[in-house]
Amino acid sequence: MSSVKTSSDDRISATVARYDAVAAEYQEVWRQHRPLDAIRKFAALAGRGALVLDPACGPALDVRLLRDAGLIVAAGDRSHESMRMGKLLFPKGALARWDFRRLPFADHAFDGVWAPAALQHLPRGQIRAGLAELRRVQRHGPMFVSFREGTGDLEAVEDPPAGTVYATPVRGEELYALLVDAGYDEVEIEVRPDPLERSGVTWVYGWGRLPGDGHVRAIARKEQS
């Protein structure tokens, strides 16, 4: 049991170290390949002025885009260098270094959670608990998560320019079940091509909303009308 835990911890630490090593380069490459349509949808569902959480923001990749969409953003990451880069870009922003498995917030603090490619860097056995922690701090509004599509458990994958990192891919039906089990309603799953157009790499987007969230439902109906 302990050897498995150590192996998972070592892979998580190695992943964080790779992102530490290339924070500036990573920001430069990936800021040109953000899911703009998903950001617009998330912002519409959350509502202008909503306080949202970006729990694994890397070098503040989506902070400006979320803010430009009318949201108030609290963001953080476990990577020290990513947070240093983020604070250089947004010196007055609400950015902090943390492990999102233990967030420094009270229950029900946020109006939405934006978590692309966050949970995939956990071992499969910790994904459910990681999602529960994100759910704990969410009061209402939308949840967005994304994973590489596939199977495996903290397997080695390439994430340019970081190189080899470790990720747990999931299938769409697995992500659907995770969101439903965590208490989300109106769950939607989308399979998307890789933003860098890499052969054999696809992504799974997962959307959820909290049950009885009238504000979110009203915005969604307005957007569709």
Describe this structure in words.
By secondary structure, this protein is of the alpha/beta class. The chain has a single domain (2-224), classed as Rossmann fold (3-Layer(aba) Sandwich). Helices cover 40% and strands 23% of the residues. The chain has eight helices and nine strands. It has helices spanning 2-21, 23-30, 36-46, 63-68, 80-89, 124-136, 172-181, 214-224; strands spanning 51-54, 72-77, 94-97, 113-116, 142-148, 155-159, 163-167, 185-193, 202-209. The protein has a four-stranded mixed beta sheet with strand order 4-5-9-8, sandwiched between helices. A hairpin with an 8-residue loop joins β8 (185-193) and β9. The longest helix is centred in the N-terminal third of the chain and has 20 residues, at 2-21. The chain is globular, with a radius of gyration of 16 Å. The N and C termini lie far apart (54 Å). The model is unreliable at 214-225 (pLDDT under 50).
Features:
225 residues; alpha/beta; Rossmann fold; four-stranded mixed sheet; three-stranded parallel sheet; 9 strands; globular
Helix-strand pattern? HHHEHEHEEHEEEHEEH
CATH superfamily: Vaccinia Virus protein VP39
CATH topology: Rossmann fold
Shape: globular
- Tell how many strands the DSSP assignment holds: 9
SS class: alpha/beta
Span of the ends, CA to CA:
54 Å
Structural domain tally: 1
Low-pLDDT residue intervals, each spanning 5 or more residues: 214-225
**Overall pLDDT, averaged?**
92
